[in-house]
Amino acid sequence: MYRVEGVHAERFGPTPQELVMTLLGAYVWPRDDQREVWAGGLVALLSELGFREGAARVSLTRLARRDLIARRKQGRLVHYTLTDRARVVLAEGDSRIFTLGGNGQPGERWTLLWHAIPDTHRRAREALVRRLRFLGFGPIQDGTWLAVRDALTQVGDLLDELEVREHAGLMHCSPADAGDARRLIARAWNLDALAETYAAFVARFDGASADDDATAFRLRTRLVHTFRQFPFRDPELPENLIAAPVKRAEAVTLFHELYSALAPAAQRHFDEVTTP
Questions:
Q1: 115 backbone dihedrals φ, ψ, rounded to 5°
Q2: Domain limits at 133?
Q3: CA nearest 22: which of 123, 97, 100, 125?
Q4: CB atoms < 10 A from the CB of 101, how many?
Q5: In a domain, 145, yes or no
Q6: Beta-sheet strand order (sheet of 37-38)
């Protein structure tokens, strides 16, 4: 039995801003992406997950400044809705999270990116690195990133979005032989650590269950937020070159089964707490 003792449960890793986006992605998007969510309810849920009220409210303000949620005040109550930008971010996230484990097909064309983004564009550089990892890129050396698939259009659009195309270059490439490919892969990704992370996920969540709505909510939220790390770490390499991590298939199956099984109870708790 999986349990989280007490109302103020121990934090499990994410920042409050990250956790708000996880909550909106799991309980609002795409079920009802026009829904207004009461701010006080979000603060209460973050408190259940281990964050103080002040940190929770600051996170909502910062997400609004980043144009990921929109604030509306009605009388004494404040509500938030998803913005168009948030919908794009969540849709992109779903496209990786819910297809993970099914994209390891051989790629004839790989993608190489190199950049020299100056400190005057530091935030754009940091955003680029986060998004490259999410798209399955790994670093070859400082400023040089590799994906073992054709991602030229995606990354080109990303460079334009961040307004740093003039500081970067993109090209298709392919290794001369399988030995070269494996050496590049070993340089770009720590596959042993990835395998250990999948094994730890299975060990943590296998056999987990919940006997009430609040526990189901906390378990499901931890499940999805923990699983979200894998698109950033797993490049889903072609299996004709590198075998898939031993526990990946088990982790993927476990995630989908538990995520669905906990959904009704977890959603009830989310709806109850976020309805003033």
A1: -145, 155
A2: 110-173
A3: 97
A4: 18
A5: yes
A6: 37-38, 77-82, 69-74
Q: Which of 130, 97, 79 is nearest to 26 (CA)?
A: 97
Q: 139 in a domain, yes or no?
A: yes
Rounded to whole angstroms, the Cα distance separating 170 from 165 reads 9
Which spans in the chain are helix H?
16-27, 39-48, 53-65, 84-97, 122-134, 152-162, 178-188, 191-205, 213-227, 230-233, 248-273
- Residue 151 and residue 131: Cα distance in Å, rounded? 12
Cβ 158 vs Cβ 210: under 8 Å: no
Has residue 15 been placed in a domain? no
pLDDT in tens, the chain (276 residues): 333 333 334 445 688 999 999 999 999 998 888 999 999 999 999 999 999 999 999 999 999 999 999 999 989 999 999 999 999 989 988 988 999 988 766 567 899 999 999 999 999 999 999 999 988 899 998 899 999 888 899 999 999 999 999 999 999 988 777 778 888 888 899 999 999 999 999 999 999 999 999 999 999 999 999 999 998 899 888 887 888 999 999 999 999 999 999 999 999 999 999 999
pTM for this structure? 0.87
Residue whose tokens read 């001369």: 176
Query: What type of residue is 80?
Result: Y
Query: What SS3 class is residue 210?
Result: coil
